[in-house]
Specification:
The structure is a homotrimer.
Chain A lengths: L1 H11 L2 E5 L5 H11 L2 E4 L3 H10 L2 E5 L5 H17 L3 E4 L7 H13 L4 E4 L1 H9 L20 H15 L2 E4 L4 E4 L4 E4 L12 H15 L4 H21 L7 H14 L2 H7 L2 E3 L1
Parallel strand pairs in A: 1-2, 1-3, 3-4, 4-5, 5-6
Antiparallel strand pairs in A: 6-7, 7-8, 8-9
Helix pairs in contact in A: 1-8, 1-9, 1-11, 2-8, 2-10, 3-4, 8-9, 9-10
């Protein structure tokens, strides 16, 4: 199934509309091309409806919010909903500021979100609502570990059910659930955290996977998480003397570019609960 | 002549004012440095006239339009026209949205554009005017091939004459014309399409070539197209196991950085009609 | 001391709030991660106070000013001052436009700046005030050389005293002074000037060094300058056939990522006056 999802992306080359932060936008564009999709960026309110209309999926990332881009997010989201396109939200920094938390919560209320992908703190902020400006509480922000895995799966399933969106929590262990089923994925390397924007890149790629697999959205979301983690493992094998986080960033995108369906099938480490 | 144009860029190190999209802006800056020019970016309406005044060329790219940057484009364009600086337009996504199409058309009407560089669909949208929000019609959007080359040359010459701008259509085969003469260029590799922003990079570099060669603008524009395509060929030769579109992006800029006039002369593949 | 400053950054992993240009922002983020810090970007006026509050330092860079981001700079700066966080200003292009010069001067008046880092022309513009739109006069803009070193040291010390900020002038020879003492640093390579944003990257890293070393801010600022220059030297050693400015950019960030305290101590070339 995972393998089939990748094949569909390569076959249909979905054009993805990204309203994303200016920090990691270039990497998001290049990883979309690497995985077989195609990127277009537009956040001006006057432009977004036209752009969303020629695309097959929408990726909203709140990493560097501007008042004008917020307006664009709602307009694009509504248009994408009308057209039946998948919409993904990456709530970067939800919990770190009132503007980010409230924007993410309002997007959840007003836009039909196909998937929400974030780290555990961001997702918990959205789940517990009314995030504070100081970020989520430490006890809530517990990383997903083998010890608390059962609880974490329960939380993600519950929130997916409540929200009606696929919830993807990424970290050392990744969880992806639609409320009924939960993928537990163990690909990736800790050094990926030393690169800015691997999460943003995954969100862009997940939007392409969702767009290319309308009948298999949970598997598609999980597949994109496996691709990103496996690319982190493959890219690491190519690291040479003197290489650091900047070379690693490039090698991960390259690994996505070169990955075949068979490699993915062999390398993907996941269980389904 | 092509060789001479490169020499002039390296000798005069033109400072180029870029009002460009936030997706590929870093690559545009680095390729301008690689080719021997120098970049400065500014899109705030209050800032652009001062910045354009200390530069010797202006590169306008509509890849991520904002209402405020549109105002900056017109202000900078007018000032550059007053000062006799070359102005290049890269109409990214013209035909894909009303805002992009209309902004590009209005820039053509109000600013004296030295050159317009885009893909065939974007250029056809500008030529046939009143672009629709759905992109140009498929029959109009035909790629330039050996089969339709004559017609394509005729179209580009005609549009260059009408518009009063050098028209550069880039793709598998590149066409660059001032209305009288048309360069047909066959450098480059198809894998360049898997990197975001090779077109934007070329536009930045073309602006530097135009600025450094005021007496030979058609040759200068064609030279920059040869440099980009040849860099794509040279960069490809350095690709190693595990490399993909991200490494390739870097290798192309590096190839521009290392290219000599003699290499360009030997490697440039063009005919003049 | 230099070595100790690096250790503190790695130990405390300071989160740095960056209001910076969209050209080099990704490199700033990655070099902050490389050096042991952590980046967050936010320029929207409504967002910046919350973000600054969860950080331990603020980096303001005026490379691509927007009216809205200017508002954000003042708000964030005031909040950081209230909280006692170090604030760094990188006055990119001060002297090149009225907006840039005036914004930098107003930031100096209204915000308590811990450090200002720029090239000699930018710093002289701030020192002589009322910069013109044509950039600083040529005679003022003299590069720091072995010949004029004494005068340059005197100028930087004086301006540091007057402004109450640590002044860091970077170029072939780097000067860092708090008004009493002046570090003269001779690390680095001329090819670093062919990469866009090495200055911006250094500013981000310097903010992290200042944040992690509240008791030793002059040494911390000087240490970050040594790290950047030494990374330029180490990165250069890894350059391979075909590499150019793009590969070099990546290798410098990687060198920061891999640099140990002992390497820094052995490689740092500085004198104190």
């Amino acid at each position: 199934m995972i393998k089939q999802c990748m094949l569909q992306v390569k076959k249909t080359a979905p054009l993805i509309h990204n309203i994303t932060n200016y920090v990691t936008v270039n990497d998001v564009a290049n990883i979309l091309l690497a995985c077989g999709g195609s990127p277009i960026m537009s956040d001006e309110a006057e432009d977004v409806e036209d752009i969303t209309s020629i695309c097959s999926g929408l990726n909203i990332n709140i990493g560097t919010l501007h008042k004008t881009s917020i307006e664009g997010m709602f307009k694009a989201g509504k248009k994408a909903n009308e057209l039946g396109h998948p919409v993904l939200l990456d709530p970067v920094g939800a919990g770190a500021s009132t503007l980010r938390t409230n924007t993410a919560l309002e997007l959840m209320r007003k836009i039909n979100l196909t998937a929400i992908r974030g780290n555990i703190s961001e997702i918990k902020t959205l789940s517990y609502g009314k995030g504070t400006t100081k970020g989520v509480d430490a006890d809530v922000a517990d990383t997903v570990t083998e010890e608390n895995l059962k609880t974490a799966i329960g939380f993600v399933k519950e929130f997916a059910k409540e929200s009606g969106s696929i919830i993807a929590v990424t970290g050392a262990i990744d969880l992806v659930s639609d409320g009924d089923t939960c993928y537990v994925i163990r690909n990736g390397r800790p050094e990926m955290g030393k690169i800015t924007g691997t999460g943003c890149q995954l969100s862009g790629m997940m939007a392409a996977y969702l767009a290319a697999n309308p009948e298999e959205r949970l598997a598609a979301a999980a597949a994109s998480v496996c691709v990103m983690g496996l690319a982190g493992e493959i890219g690491w094998k190519y690291m040479q003397r003197g290489d650091g986080n900047s070379a690693y960033r490039s090698r991960i995108i390259d690994a996505v570019y070169n990955m075949t369906e068979d490699e993915l099938e062999r390398g993907a480490k996941y269980e389904v609960f």
